[in-house]
Amino acid sequence: MIIARARDITAATRPESARHLWNPRGHADSSWSRVRVTCRS
Question: What global pTM score does this model have?
């Protein structure tokens, strides 16, 4: 899994989960982005 976690110059970070940010339209979801990947040889 690849996880993108941003921070600004004051070291403020995005929340890990959108659970506390949720709203009916999905606006303001600034939680960590996650992408599941599969590697094959």
Answer: 0.51
37 is in which domain, residue-wise?
1-41
**Residue 34 DSSP SS3:** strand
Query: Over the range 17-30, which residues count as b (16 or more CB within 10 Å of their CB) and which as e?
Result: eeeeeeeeeeeeee
Into how many domains does the chain fold? 1
Q: Are 4 and 13 in contact (CB under 8 A)?
A: no
> Could you read off the pLDDT of 1-41 as tens digits, one per residue?
898 888 889 988 888 887 777 777 767 777 888 899 999 98
Question: How many CB atoms lie under 10 A from the CB of residue 15?
Answer: 13
